[in-house]
């Protein structure tokens, strides 16, 4: 199936109506707004959840909706899907003590019944929680892992390895054991250079986006927040597909050394592009904003959802009536939970049927 996946993509790549850029990637294509299907406007049902102050992430599993945040006493809240999505528990005490959380970057499902994982970016730690018990503590953790000190972002690649990229490294991607041993490396950040002489750490930062992996397919997806690009990565073969669009822009930046190492200083008017992604069993879901990040939450600047096949073709576009910054896809029931960025943030339920 994986060989067919790349064969179908190459056929699409050769026949695409978008102009192909002169890039070093063998599997590279572009699309523009004109290549996309018409957007369907969709209005979400506001769930009116309570219990959180500053929500940042979502996960849906086994009839339970999980919301993560940064500011409250507990950073994770679990809601049972019944007539009104009732709050049943809060977990992840906010602090630096054993089993406590400081900055939940993402929540992940590793396929374990009744369990989910929270990745703490600041502490470089993974914590596993039970959806159904009453404890607010993790039942398993890989905490303060010294080998992951220079990891910029990571996500589960299997039940014992993670897919990661480093803060400052020439190599683009790593698969690491949970002990920090290197299983594989592939890709070079200099392949993304827009001009010579710029350090790799700058390009690594410019191409940040939340990583997610479909563990059954062993295929990962990252969608850029500062560049409008999507990368589909086969974690077995290390083949990569890069797709650029719909604006095909490169952020304006200068190289800044004020932190003691080179990082990009990005123009404040640059746009925020893909805010979240999800590699489902049937499609890849991409949450798109496409406006300057400072306009998040303003009236008239709301998010879109691109639904893409694993062959790289965007098949559906939805236009939301709310500014959505994070999502959880319920592919089985053809719907999405979206976290709003508003003065009074909440979760909206969007039915695609």
User: How many strand segments?
Assistant: 28
Runs with pLDDT <50, length 5+? 1-24
Secondary-structure-derived class? mainly beta
How are strands sequenced across the largest beta sheet?
1-19-18-17-16
Estimated share of beta-strand residues: 35-45%
SSE pattern = HEEEEEEEEEEEEEEEHEEEEEEEEEEEEE
How confident overall, as mean pLDDT? 88
Helix content: under 10%
Globally, the shape reads globular
Give the helix tally: 2
Protein name: 6-bladed beta-propeller
Quick structural overview:
The protein is mainly β and 353 residues long. The protein has helices at 2-15, 200-206, and strands at 28-30, 40-42, 45-46, 55-61, 64-69, 74-80, 86-93, 104-108, 115-120, 125-130, 140-142, 151-156, 161-166, 171-177, 182-188, 211-214, 219-223, 229-234, 240-244, 253-256, 263-266, 271-279, 284-292, 304-308, 314-320, 324-330, 335-340, 347-351. A hairpin with a 4-residue loop joins strand 5 and strand 6.
Outline the structure in words:
The chain is mainly β and 353 residues long. 6% of the residues lie in helices and 45% in strands. The chain is built from two helices and 28 strands. It has helices at 2-15, 200-206, and strands at residues 28-30, 40-42, 45-46, 55-61, 64-69, 74-80, 86-93, 104-108, 115-120, 125-130, 140-142, 151-156, 161-166, 171-177, 182-188, 211-214, 219-223, 229-234, 240-244, 253-256, 263-266, 271-279, 284-292, 304-308, 314-320, 324-330, 335-340, 347-351. A hairpin with a 4-residue loop joins strand 9 and strand 10 (125-130). The longest helix is centred in the N-terminal third of the chain and has 14 residues, at 2-15. This is 6-bladed beta-propeller.
């Amino acid at each position: 199936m994986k060989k067919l996946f790349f064969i179908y993509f190459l056929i699409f790549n050769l026949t695409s109506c978008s102009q192909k850029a002169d890039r070093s990637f063998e599997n590279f294509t572009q699309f523009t707004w004109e290549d996309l299907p018409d957007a369907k406007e969709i209005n979400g049902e506001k769930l009116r959840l309570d219990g959180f102050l500053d929500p940042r992430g979502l996960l849906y599993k086994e009839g339970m909706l999980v919301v993560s945040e940064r500011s409250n006493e507990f950073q994770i809240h679990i809601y049972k899907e019944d007539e009104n999505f009732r709050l049943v528990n809060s977990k992840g005490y906010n602090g630096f003590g054993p089993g406590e959380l400081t900055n939940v970057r993402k929540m992940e499902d590793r396929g374990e019944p009744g369990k989910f994982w929270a990745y703490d970016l600041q502490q470089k730690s993974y914590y596993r929680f039970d959806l159904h018990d009453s404890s607010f503590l993790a039942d398993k953790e890989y905490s303060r892992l010294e080998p992951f000190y220079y990891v910029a972002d990571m996500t589960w690649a299997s039940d014992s390895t993670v897919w990661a990229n480093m803060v400052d490294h020439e190599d683009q991607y790593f698969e690491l054991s949970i002990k920090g041993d290197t299983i594989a490396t592939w890709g070079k950040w200099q392949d993304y250079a827009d001009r010579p002489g710029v350090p790799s750490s700058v390009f690594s930062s410019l191409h940040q986006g939340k990583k997610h992996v479909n563990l059954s397919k062993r295929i990962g997806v990252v969608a850029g927040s500062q560049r409008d690009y999507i990368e589909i990565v086969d974690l077995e073969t290390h083949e990569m597909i890069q797709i650029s669009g719909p604006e095909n822009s490169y952020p304006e930046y200068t190289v800044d050394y004020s932190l003691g190492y080179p990082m990009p200083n990005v123009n404040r008017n640059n746009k925020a592009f893909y805010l979240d992604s999800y590699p489902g069993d049937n499609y890849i879901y991409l949450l798109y904003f496409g406006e300057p990040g400072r306009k998040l939450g303003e009236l008239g600047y709301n998010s879109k959802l691109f639904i893409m096949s694993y062959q790289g073709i965007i098949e559906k576009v939805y236009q939301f009536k709310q500014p959505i910054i994070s999502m959880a896809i319920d592919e089985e029931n053809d719907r999405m939970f979206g976290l709003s960025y508003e003065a009074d943030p909440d979760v909206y339920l969007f039915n695609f049927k």
